Structure to design on (294 residues):
């Protein structure tokens, strides 16, 4: 299909994330494409009236979260036969970081889970939506069920 | 790839629409899937201060627009080997009509062109974005270049 050469799976570790991962893998096989994986640890600031308007996560907590994310990505990547230098864990705004990594690695298809338009997804804007708006390549939004 | 069975091409007749159409066709072939096509004539009301807040297109004009859309869909469908009963031209809000037709026809992948986040697309919200928010199936947003 469509001759994609380098597919990027934007992994989010939600309950239905394996469904998205499987689709990305199937696509990579069908296209004989390179498959890469990225997970973005959302850089949500913690606000505390005592110390000022915005305080980022403290260093230790950040490092623990990153370490946990790296382990989960590594486990998932192993299942999908993705080598280590095609795995990225970054901190920041998911939509911008995913698009940046796609641009830097000549990705031609981003595969991302798509949540329904309600609850937090509606309030914050979903990652799929943000990626769609900003990407310079094709985006496959895989619908998550029971969501 | 991903075993899609019924793919819906949301055709918009933009300059780069053939690029989206070709991807939809390639996907259908690769998946041995049924390919269907829909075009929505956007139901933009015309406002006129003399007659009141909102006046829809008059009947003749609507019919001319629909007839022109049907001809373009028919020409495109022929190129893509889509039979007549898998072609739809409807009037309404693209995002809702595309999703309605997808639901009614057990579509499992909608293929839609994706414009950049600027100009009118930013102001009005793009069709791709609206479809992504509302669809109950996967959505492939094909990036339109030079846009």
């Amino acid at each position: 299909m469509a001759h994609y050469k380098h597919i990027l799976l934007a992994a989010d570790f939600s309950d239905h994330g394996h469904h998205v991962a499987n689709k990305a893998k199937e696509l990579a096989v069908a296209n004989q494409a390179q498959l890469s994986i990225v997970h973005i640890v959302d850089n949500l600031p913690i606000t505390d009236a005592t110390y000022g308007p915005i305080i980022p996560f403290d260093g230790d907590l950040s490092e623990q979260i990153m370490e946990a994310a790296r382990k989960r990505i590594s486990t998932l990547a192993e299942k999908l036969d993705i080598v280590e230098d095609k795995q990225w864990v970054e901190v920041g705004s998911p939509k911008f970081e995913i698009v940046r990594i796609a641009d830097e690695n000549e990705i031609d298809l981003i595969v991302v889970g798509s949540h329904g338009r309600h609850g937090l997804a509606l309030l914050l804007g979903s990652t799929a939506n943000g990626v769609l708006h900003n990407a310079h390549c094709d985006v496959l939004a895989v619908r998550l069920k029971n969501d």
Notes: Residues 59-79 of chain A form the longest helix (21 residues).
